[in-house]
Every structure is written in C-alpha cells, then in structure tokens.
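Protein in question filed below.

…
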Amino acid sequence: MSADIGLRLNPILVHEFERQMRSRYTHLALTVYLVVVGSLAVLLYTTSFLSSTRTVGSNGAVGAAVFYFLVGVLLILTTFIVPAIAANAISEERQSLTLDLLRLTPFGGGYIVRAKLAARFGFAVLLLIVMLPLFSLAFMLGGVELRELGIAVGIVLMSMLTYLLIGICVSAHAKTTAGALALTYTIVLSTAIGTPLIALLNAATLFGRLPTSPQDISAVLAVLLDAVINAGLGVSPISTTVFALSGLASDANIWLNVGFSGSAVLPTPLVFFIAIHLISSAVCYAGAVRRANAPD
C-alpha cells in the first residue's frame, strides 16, 4: 500500500531513488570512499599517537586531529563531489529527449526538481552517514565536544543542499551535461574558495587605508568593511567551519563577535552563511522550477 501511495504521489522520485541506489557504481563508490577515508583516519590516528608524548591530554590532541581531518574530508566532499552529482539532473533528460515526456505527466516542474533534488540529497547524506562512525574514534580519544560535530554537520548539510540546487538550476538551463558541469564547478569553487580568499587578503589592506578623520566616518567604514568581510567568509562552508569551530574551541560566541577592526559587534560568518545559503537555495529552486516548466 505504501508503495502505491509513493508511486501515486511522485513516481519520478521513486524512479530516481531506484536508479540511484540500484546502480553498482553507487555501492562501489561508497565502499571505496569509506575504505580510503577510514584507512587515512586510522593512519592519522596511528601517526599522531606514536609521535605524541605520553602526557595528560595527549589523547585529546590526537582525537582533535582525527576530528578535524574528518571534517576536512566532509568539506572536500561537499565542495568537489556533491556539485557533480546534481550537474546532470535535468540536462541528461534534455539530451536523452525525455524531458518533454516528463513535462507531459501530471507532475509539473516543481515535482521534477524536487524528485531530482531528493534523490541526490539522499545519496549525499548517505555519504555523510557512512562517515559518522569514524567520528567515534575522535570522541573516544577526547578533545572534541558533541556541539562541534553538530555545527560541522549542520554546515555540511546546508552546503550540500545549496550546491545541489545550484547544480540542478544550472542543469535546467544548460543544453549539455558537460556545460552544466563546467558552470556548476565554476560557481561553486569561486564562492567556496575564491570569495573567502579575496576577503582575507584584502582585509588588512582595506583597514590600513581607512581615513583617520573625521573619526565617525572612519568608524562607519570600519563597520561596513567588517560586515562585508564576514559576509565574504560566510559564503564558503570551508571558512565558515574554520571560524565557527575556532570560536567554539575558544568559548567565544559563534553568533556575534567583535569584527576585524574591533569597532563593533557584528554577526559572525556563521550567521551570514545561514542567511546567504537559505536565500541562494530558494533562488536556485525557483529558477530550476521555472526553467523546468518552460518549453525548450
């Protein structure tokens, strides 16, 4: 009965999930991925443990090293692998001449986009879930708090959703899968790596050139520059995770903090990250649905 309800609600979603999970490449990719990451984590643990001195708290340092390594793997996965999962979502239907057939079904563009998104988001979350047992090694050694894992996983999940929607939106507008893949990676890498680098490299230069008089103008410019830099850092899940976890490690407020110029308390990159990614996800979803409904 439940299968009949699922088919009646959205057969496109059922088809996407079945095609995704029945593929032998899916299971092979999961196995290779887990073996490689697990082996590297154990190797890091062994190396850190053997090289550390046997003192109080040394296990905590090893646990923290393993934890940050695994978080780094998740961020690499999100930035470099997840966009490729979504870049062919709709463009492959267009190339296979099956997109018009999907449009003729009772389900509109919104159903098509949501089905493509759900299947790919489910696979991305599966890649995250299979890594969670490895984090137990870090918690067993200590030096890591549960809230740090919660913040990191939350950032990764929101990034996955945004990057998948970017890929689907680009795929809906692109003529070919290769073009969609190239444009998706251009957008994702420029925002995930390029934007925070520009913000950090220009921070010191911009603050060094602030006018010294009148003082009120200088203070206003400093606050504005602080906000722009925090927003630039908040675009990327990598820089957001670094600043959020460093704030937790120092018991600082991860939501509000003193800016780089020290002139005002402003939202941290984590706040900008949440706002930017929510808005970007909504815009990309609307753009993908509109294009999926439009004739070629």
Remarks:
- Strands lie at 256-258, 265-267.
- The chain is about 80% helix and 0% strand.
- Confidence is low (pLDDT under 50) at residues 1-7.
- The radius of gyration is 22 Å.
